[in-house]
Amino acid sequence: NMRRAIRMVESNSYGPKNITELADATATFELSGGDIKSAKHLYRRSLISPNDNSVAQVEWARQLYNSIDPAKALDSSFEAMAWRARASKDWSGVVRFCHEWLNREPYSERPALLGGYYADIASHDSKEMVAISMQGLMANPKSLALLNNTAVGLAYLGQLSMAMTHIEKAIRLMRTQDKKEVAIHAPFLRATLGLIALRSGCAEIGERLYIRSFEEFIDNKERAAGLMAGLYWIREDIRLGRKESERLLDVVRKSAKGLPLPIYNDIIAQADGIEKEALQKQLPHFFRRTDLEKTE
Question: Taking residues 209-213, what's their average pLDDT?
Fold first, then answer.
């Protein structure tokens, strides 16, 4: 029970190193319940003798709530460095530190997930996204999220058969899990199937899959994930020359307002990256309004 755990942290019967992660867990529990004052106190207890996990947890809390000062955190924590890079919108730094973190913790799923995700946000670097995701899969071959990220990267590289192999494996694994896990993962896998369909030339099927995925995210009250799925769909619309793509990017940017700042920054960075990619490739029907104004 969580109250008993808090009493253990406060009892001074255990050394700081022994209770650092317990203090983190109880602090996060208090934070989720709205008790900021108690959470801050417990997070500070976790930093008396912190490890990489406790530093990263405090950094996460600081980003979301801007109320925790991790001044005593370990500077050598690559996980914390990755989160700090995210907070400062240093996307390439996130990927770099995730590589270091994964090398230090090769059996951890998290650095591969985070690194792959930000490789795409940072520069739409699909090769990097696939490389770090597959490195993570070596130790976590049943990770649905890593299988999905790998499939996304492979689809962008045009390796559609391999992408389908990874997403089919993820779907088979998902079907062995309980309903709660299925509800979490199904919209992501469905969106990736939509991407593969669109890249395979099956536009109608791809659009139906994306629409269903978006609806599932909304039903699950996952607004941020729904907006990100919408951006991936818009990216494909731009590639196909759809005229409404620029307006839809603006809709997503406006819809992201009010989300926690780190998540908002992710969505804006992805939207800006999609726009930059389209302009660099001079894709049809996609121009900044200011560019059109210059020709008038």
Answer: 95
33-89 pLDDT, tens per residue?
777 777 777 777 676 566 667 667 777 776 666 555 544 444 447 887 888 888 889
User: For residue 239, what are the contacts with CB-CB under 8 A and spacing of at least 6?
Assistant: 283
pLDDT attached to residue 296 = 38
Where on the phi/psi map is residue 282: left (φ > 0), alpha (ψ -120 to 50), or beta? left
- CB 109 within 8 Å of CB 261: no
Maximum CA extent, the chain = 75
Distance between CA 179 and CA 296 in Å, rounded? 56
- Residue 277 C-alpha from the chain's centroid: 20
Q: Taking phi first (over 0 means left), then psi (-120 to 50 degrees means alpha), and beta for anything else, what does residue 286 get? A: beta
Is 80 exceeded by the pLDDT of residue 177? Answer: yes
To the question of pTM greater than 0.85 for the whole model, the response is no
280 C-beta neighbours (distance < 10 Å), count: 8
Three state DSSP letters for the chain: CHHHHHHHHHCCCCCHHHHHHHHHHHHHHHHHCCCHHHHHHHHHHHCCCCCHHHHHHHHHHHHHHCCCCCCCCCCCCHHHHHHHHHHCCCHHHHHHHHHHHHHHCCCCCHHHHHHHHHHHHHHCCHHHHHHHHHHHHHHCCCCHHHHHHHHHHHHHCCCHHHHHHHHHHHHHHHCCCCHHHHHHHHHHHHHHHHHHHHHCCCHHHHHHHHHHHHHHHHHCCCHHHHHHHHHHHHHHHHHCCCCCHHHHHHHHHHHCCCCCHHHHHHHHHHHHHHHHHHHHCCCCCCCCHHHHHHHC
CA distance 235 to 141: 29
